[in-house]
Write a structure and sequence with these properties.
Layout (H helix, E strand, L loop, with lengths): L15 H7 L5 H4 L36 H4 L26 H15 L4 E5 L11 H5 L5 E5 L6 E6 L2 E2 L4 E4 L2 E2 L21 E5 L14 E5 L10 E11 L6 E11 L5 E21 L4 E4 L18 E4 L3 E25 L2 E24 L5 E6 L5 E9 L1 E24 L4 E14 L7 E8 L5 E6 L10 E3 L17 E2 L4 E21 L2 E20 L30 E6 L14 E5 L1 H9 L27 E2 L5 E20 L2 E22 L2 E6 L6 E7 L3 E21 L4 E12 L10 E2 L3 E3 L4 E4 L7 E15 L2 E13 L2 E8 L15 E8 L3 E13 L5 E12 L21 E10 L2 E10 L2 E5 L12 E4 L2 E11 L4 E8 L6 E4 L6 E6 L3 E9 L1
Parallel strand pairs: 5-8, 37-41
Antiparallel strand pairs: 1-7, 2-3, 3-4, 5-6, 7-8, 9-10, 9-52, 10-11, 11-14, 11-51, 12-13, 14-15, 15-18, 16-17, 17-21, 18-19, 18-20, 19-24, 20-23, 20-24, 21-22, 24-25, 25-28, 25-29, 26-27, 29-30, 30-33, 31-32, 32-36, 33-34, 34-38, 35-37, 38-39, 39-42, 40-41, 42-43, 43-44, 44-45, 45-48, 46-47, ...
Organism: Sphingomonas longa
Subcellular location: Cell outer membrane
Protein name: TonB-dependent receptor
Length: 1000
Amino acid sequence: MLPNTRAVSINPGLSRRMRALACATSVAALTCATPLLAQDQGNLQNSTTGQPAAPQPAVPATANTTSAAEAGRPQDAATAQDESQGNTAQNDDIVVVGLRGSLQRNLDIKRTSSGVVDVISAEDIGKFPDSNVAASLQRLPGVSIQRSGSRGEPTGITVRGFGGDFNTTLYDGRRISTATGGRQIDFSTVGVDFIGQLSVLKTPDVSLSASSIGATVNIQFPNPFDHPGFRLAATASGSIQDRADKIVPTAGLLISSTTADDRFGILADVIYTRRDTDTNRVYVSGWPGGNYAPCQLTANCTAAQAGSKTIAGWFPQQYGAEQQRVEDERVDARISLQYHPTDALMVTIDNNFSRQTIDQNNYAFGVWFNQGDLRNVTLDANGTAVDFTQAGTPTDFTAALNKQVLQTNQTGLNVKFDATDNLTLEGDAAYAKSWLNPGDIIGSRNGDIGYGGNLGNTLRFQVGGNSKDAFPSISNFGPAGDSARWADQSVIGSHVTVNQTQHNTDELMQFRGNATWKQDNLTLKAGGQYYQDTFNFRNQSTFTNNFWQAYAGYGAPSGRTSGISPLPGDLFQGNVSLNNFIPGFNGSLPPSVFIFDPVAYQNYLTGLGNPSAQNIPGFNYGSVNGFTGTFDEAVDPGSVLRVREKTWSLYFSANFKTEIGGLPFTFNAGIRNEVTNLSSTGQGRQPVRIVTSSADPTLLTVDQYTEIQPVTNTSSYSYLLPSLDAKLELTDNLVLRVDASRTLTRPGLNLLTPVLNVGSGQRVGALTASGGNPNLRPYLADNFDLGAEWYYRRNSYLAVNFFLKNVSNFIIGGVTRQAINGVVDPTTGQPASFAVSQQVNGPDATVRGVELAWQQVFGDSGFGFQANATFVNTNRPYDETNISQTGFAVTGLANSANFVGFYDKSGFQFRAAVNWRDKYLLQFGQNQNTGSFGAEPTFVNQSFQVDLTTSYDISKNFSIFGEALNVNNNQQSTHGRFSNQLLDVFDYGRRYTLGARYRF
């Protein structure tokens, strides 16, 4: 037994009534979190029936559902050893640690909860099963993940087909601020090493939250009285991605201590994490829909003939390939102070801090297409342009230094007071603030060079297969079609230079107070919550002041008077070969892309001097005004947004346990009323004039606007959200569940701008504008669950759960073509037609599905597995033949399956995890969203990934571990409306980790 710990056993004969009191509230996932020592009865038999003994409930430990006395009890599952390791308890109770102990605690919580809950708990302090929160969550039934293409890291989750903002993530029962613009958090920003438990509530607890149609995810962090006495955990590892070829460190330290009289405790931890990833990407920025002239299907088509456009189809807006070199660095820290002056009072003060810095160097090429310039067009049966040529196609080589800093800090105070043996009062307050790119950070510095004009080529573009295993091919590339001179530095000149930064803050204040009455088989809870969320949004760039075109044009070799060519040779630092760029994918690319430093490139152009004070050959005097030599960003007035959201909630729940026909029956009923007031303020202006660029015929600039006017909109709404949970124990091991509830999901704060924003930097044939809708209402869902769970032996179970969700007020992002303020398109002489993206509350939809789960441990062999599958569908699937502006479908729905096989015995552990997710509709909208048929969709292709982890306990305090992620080299690919419209394919490779842990 470790020093300064307490061993607690649970009597197998504990009455059902006492078990019910232990986990009687409607949110038993929280009530029963971080259990006391759970016993392994895998080899114990019920003395009366000879069947496996029924599992005993876990002891409640979550801060916002326990009494003050319970919150001061130790919650340490690591104070005794597994019998399989040669240690037997002093009585008939056996305590299991490690992976199997963790799995059993998860089942205890799942079984005793009133609603549908899945849990993942730490195997020990400082030992969580996976290196990423989302990666752990995907092992659960109904949970899938989204990955960052450039990093391959799991960043978000989808639960029962609902992802992103449909899921609420809490830290210890509190909402967390996020400056990303939505409501969901990026799970790659959460340090996982010292997490205590993850709970996924698929049915709501009205005393916690009802603002998630998908699920509520509660991330629980440790407190000092979870592990009384002195505890220390340290971890250190090195990881390497197979293409990055560099070992980078991760290290963490946790120290916790309580006084001898168990009245005061302190816990502090800090984690440093570094991930380096080199990712190869081939991309099409968008497949806009529009109309072709019949003559474009031939080689000879004059401008006059091209005016009659009668054939519907799609074309690639921009095509290219790039290598992304990403450094992801994160610091997480936590401090928790607990004061327990009497058994009836517990005071907890904690602070959570995280700062993630992502530095990304991109090296790419890109070619731009205009639908009206395409010739020799071959359309497939769906209308996709699978073969065409374009005369005069320019070629751009780009380098970008992208930086994103996301920082969050949350401070909370929780007071728990046991007024009587039956009544517990609780007050909780928290303040959190997040920053995206705080201070003077520049989010992206871009250098764009190349050739065009006289050196433009009659490029050929061909689609050669399905997006899951092929990317498009281009031929006849190079200056004037000379492929041997593809990367000839003597003809390459300067083009556009883009700097841009998104600055956001999100400030969140929240208060909660509730009273809980427990007596015999009845638990009553009543209380209220208040949230105030203030979001500020601002974008600044060289688009706003038109400085991006300062040296556009490519220079003299391309026949242009603007642009600098040749560029100094020392700017070029080598190249990235595009040979076998995406292994396993068909398609052909040019030979290489340049490696150059965009900052050095911008410094070179700045060093040419001030074009406003002297004549500088190559400066774009015809289009750029006010430029003094430096590529300063300017704030885009249309991007400025401030949203304040205030929500008041009152809730009441009643939970009781009785018998029906002699069978134990648990019933939980709750109701929550939420009132929300919204205020959003933006800066409105309208375009007055659009002008062409003398440096590049594909570029346009809005150089005049109306005066800026502040615009403020206020709105409010109120909803009553009921919830019912019923659980009937048909036998000692078979549980039947029925659940019904109403939940909501609020629109993303970034969608609530009250103004229409028309950016100054535009492209010929691709005029765009975007607007929000401050009057958006939440999605509403009526949810129904029917499930059965068979706990047929210790650490093993089978479960099936049917669910149905009727969702109304879906928010759809449509794209419409419209004129704005009568402004004229100088390339046509007609009123400019902008593709305007906006959101509205739209149709209803039904989502239905079934979750299957099976967990099996094979006696004392150490072997076992977890397997689950989810099958979902909807009455509103995507209709690819609908080209109206108001096309709609439910996003995120996909069948999925997970399998984890493991061995855990005698200190050695090995896991193999297989995760599969079918193709799904991610969103409406693509990087270039300029089509005539509304917002084009983005689909994610089927994925299949294999991960391996292992560890070995050298002693009871010291262990080593290893991890191999994506061993089958899964690649992430997306496509547009049809499967051959590739949008992205990311090859982010494998990652290997080796490290050690120490616990005391």
